[in-house]
């Protein structure tokens, strides 16, 4: 990738900035070294070198302690390094300051551009880049390597003497050996399974990923885990049946592997797996959603099945997920301050909340919303349309009426002219640690229907950047495809009601191409539709949306991870030294393995809950009074409805000068679909960022154009509603 430098005023970084850059560099280097060490362990694990040289040495060093016993080996070799990487990631993200003006311009061609281009567009994996395919191939290679080496080494130990001693035939001995190794390979996948769904984890944003974009990795890993564990279980059942030991299925050995616990874990996993298939998930989403809570049963009985010592190999990702999940639980216990609701003619609702000015988030971030009066259990993710730069005290989400939950909300708001209060809880926001759209000379955003919502936040954020900073803003092209003319009203949401200057800055070069595919002219609803606004009364019990861990949330998260893990090791060390060791003496044959595992699980849970709650209460005490004053001082109109005309109807009734300016830059096309190939190839610029959010076919079409080789200046990025 070629890079050109633009003028940044010639300012030199301060000593503070140089220190931050140094800390970022050191932490990033340490993260890479530790993670590569973990991967090396996974690669070496099936080899004889690991088993005959490395492992005995590690057992002498960590596994003979009176404080940790045999579990100390896996605790320090596998769990400790991953926890260290997660903590270092928190430090890195804390010092990763959002740049005021990115001075690097991306050019066409180059290695990095090629790696980010879509390689597969259609197929079961979805739209996948060259980089993703490369890492997937490397991961599959690791699984195959491990399985082949495991089998080769284990089959070498099968001799006529060993067969005679166990009363087995050759195929039975090989089947049992393969069954065990399938389980070992499944543990590799399980070690990474929960990382993509830990929404607030530091590991994903530290490498430029979000939980939203990483859901597909969770899906891939989930399929691998269930295929391997299912084969693991079936092979053992066939083996037990062939040697007339089918009673082993209900065996719960408190000193060794518990088969029954493994079967319970497998059944829970299969129930989750069945509901993930597309037809079931789409038609019965609530069944899919609630069934996934069986992950608690799945993981609990997995740990009871293999014992705590072996679980530490696969447990780090789940530990990080548990911390994230409990913090989300704490945040969701409070109601947030809902300021207003705008109901558009297109069956679309914009909810605006009060926000702590210190809460900053990047464009395309997501907020999970729960409204108890509609459903106490359902949480729905929505893209944030506001900009934390342009609207520091407000946060908005747009909800398109499509399912049962959103239909009930629309009916509730549209059927009443006055609602004093609507109780709402949220989780989030979650999004990329930073976005850098300024590296492109032009930015093309292609969307279908409600897919416009992430682009609203991008446009607003770039407007805020142009108002506050002197840097070149990319030329913006927004290509929208709507089914009906009533949906044009969604374009009224592109600009906020407040926070803008008197007119759009000349630095903002934006063009909107709106296509209404199923109508040849504007319908009656589009020309006469009104935007209804409801204002809600403030309540002392409501809080502004803020980070659960305050302004320095990354440092606090790192503190929770490190302190909870340290306290866990201290408590477990004391319990082992003064309770378990005097009974068992590290033989693992006297004290119940099940009891020991349950003790570890309880201690882990208590440490996570205690440290997370303490961090939350400390930040609430420190910043809570400021937030309460902010909620009380919010000046809003009386809680009545106020109809407002859409700025995109035929009469062109304009609310403000910026809105008028935006309307003048909008072209409406009725009765046709956008010619995406022509529109994209006609965009000028050495680097054109192409973002797409909408139906699957639209995303595939845009990805196909960007990867076709017809031009080298298009850089593709898909935004999906995977959550």
Automatic annotation (TrEMBL):
Cell compartments where the protein resides: Membrane
Organism of origin is: Camelina sativa
Q: How does it sit in the membrane?
A: Multi-pass membrane protein
Q: Which UniProt keywords apply?
A: Membrane, Oxidoreductase, Transmembrane, Transmembrane helix
Q: Which Pfam families does the record match to this protein? A: FAD_binding_8, Ferric_reduct, NAD_binding_6
Q: What is this protein called?
A: Ferric reduction oxidase 2-like
**Keyword match Oxidoreductase:** yes
Q: Which domain of life is it from?
A: Eukaryota
* Entry-linked InterPro entries: FAD-bd_8 (IPR013112), FAD-bd_FR_type (IPR017927), Fe3_Rdtase_TM_dom (IPR013130), Fe_red_NAD-bd_6 (IPR013121), FNR_nucleotide-bd (IPR039261), RBOH/FRE (IPR050369), Riboflavin_synthase-like_b-brl (IPR017938)
Primary location: membrane
Query: Membrane spanning segments where?
Result: 29-48, 75-95, 125-151, 178-198, 219-240, 260-280, 292-322, 554-576, 597-618
Identify the residues that the record assigns to the FAD-binding FR-type domain, covering every copy.
Answer: 331-436
**What are the top taxonomic ranks of the organism?**
Eukaryota, Viridiplantae, Streptophyta, Embryophyta, Tracheophyta
């Amino acid at each position: 990738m070629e890079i050109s430098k633009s003028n940044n005023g010639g300012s030199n970084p301060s000593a503070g900035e140089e220190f931050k850059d140094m800390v970022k560099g050191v932490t990033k280097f340490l993260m890479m070294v530790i993670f590569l060490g973990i991967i090396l362990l996974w690669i070496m694990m099936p080899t004889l070198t690991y088993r005959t040289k490395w492992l005995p040495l590690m057992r002498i060093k960590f596994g003979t302690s009176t404080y940790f016993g045999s579990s100390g080996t896996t605790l320090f070799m596998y769990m400790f390094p991953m926890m260290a990487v997660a903590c270092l990631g928190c430090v890195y993200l804390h010092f990763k300051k959002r740049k005021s003006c990115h001075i690097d311009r991306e050019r066409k061609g180059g290695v990095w551009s090629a790696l980010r281009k879509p390689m597969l567009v259609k197929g079961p994996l979805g739209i996948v880049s060259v980089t993703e395919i490369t890492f997937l191939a490397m991961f599959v290679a690791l699984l195959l390597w491990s399985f082949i080496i495991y089998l080769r080494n284990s089959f070498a130990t099968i001799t006529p003497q060993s067969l005679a001693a166990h009363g087995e035939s050759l195929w039975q001995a090989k089947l049992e050996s393969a069954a065990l190794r399938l389980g070992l390979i499944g543990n590799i996948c399980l070690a990474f399974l929960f990382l993509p769904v830990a929404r607030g984890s530091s590991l994903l944003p530290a490498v430029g990923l979000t939980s939203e974009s990483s859901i597909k990795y969770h899906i891939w890993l989930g399929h691998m885990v269930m295929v391997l564990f299912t084969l693991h279980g079936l092979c053992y059942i066939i083996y037990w049946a062939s040697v007339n030991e089918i009673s082993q299925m209900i065996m719960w050995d408190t000193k060794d592997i518990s088969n029954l616990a493994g079967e319970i874990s497998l059944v829970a996993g299969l129930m989750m797996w069945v509901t993930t298939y597309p037809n079931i998930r789409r038609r019965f989403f609530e069944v899919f959603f609630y069934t996934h809570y069986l992950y608690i049963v799945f993981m609990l009985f997995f740990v009871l099945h293999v014992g705590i010592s072996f679980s530490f190999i696969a447990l780090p990702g789940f530990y990080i997920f548990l911390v994230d999940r409990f913090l989300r639980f704490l945040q969701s216990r409070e109601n947030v301050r809902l300021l207003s609701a705008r109901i558009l003619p297109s069956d679309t609702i914009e909810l605006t909340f009060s926000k702590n000015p210190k809460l900053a988030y990047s464009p395309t971030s997501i907020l999970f919303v729960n409204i108890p009066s509609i459903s106490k259990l359902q949480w729905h993710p929505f893209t944030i349309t506001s900009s934390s730069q342009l609207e520091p005290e407000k946060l908005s989400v747009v909800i398109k009426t499509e399912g049962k939950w959103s239909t009930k909300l629309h009916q509730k708001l549209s059927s009443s002219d006055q609602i004093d209060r609507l109780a709402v809880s949220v989780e989030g926001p979650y999004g990329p640690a930073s976005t850098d759209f300024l590296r492109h000379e032009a930015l093309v955003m292609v969307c279908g229907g409600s897919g416009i919502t992430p682009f609203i936040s991008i446009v607003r954020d770039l407007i805020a950047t142009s108002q506050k900073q002197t840097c070149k803003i990319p030329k913006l092209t927004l290509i929208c495809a709507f089914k009906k003319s009533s949906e044009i009203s969604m374009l009224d949401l592109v600009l906020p009601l407040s926070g803008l200057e008197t007119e759009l800055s000349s630095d903002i070069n934006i063009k909107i191409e709106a296509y209404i595919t199923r109508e040849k002219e504007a319908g009656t609803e589009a020309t006469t539709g009104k935007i209804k606004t409801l204002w809600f009364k403030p309540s002392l019990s409501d809080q502004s949306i803020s980070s659960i861990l305050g302004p320095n949330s990354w440092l606090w998260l790192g503190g929770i991870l490190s302190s909870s893990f340290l306290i866990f090791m201290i408590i477990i060390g004391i319990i082992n030294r003064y309770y378990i060791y005097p009974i068992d003496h590290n033989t693992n044959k006297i004290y119940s393995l099940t009891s020991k595992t349950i003790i570890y699980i309880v201690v882990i849970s208590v440490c996570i809950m205690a440290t997370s709650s303490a961090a939350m209460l400390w930040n609430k005490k420190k910043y809570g009074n400021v937030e309460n004053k902010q909620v009380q001082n919010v000046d809003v109109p009386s809680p009545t409805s106020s109809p407002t005309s859409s700025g995109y109807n035929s009469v062109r009734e304009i609310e403000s000068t910026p809105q008028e300016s935006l309307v003048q830059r909008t072209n409406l096309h009725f009765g046709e679909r956008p010619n995406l190939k022509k529109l994209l190839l006609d965009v000028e610029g050495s680097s054109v960022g192409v973002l797409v959010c909408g139906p699957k076919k639209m995303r595939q079409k845009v990805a196909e154009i960007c990867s076709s080789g017809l031009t080298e200046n298009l850089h593709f990025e898909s935004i999906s509603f995977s959550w």
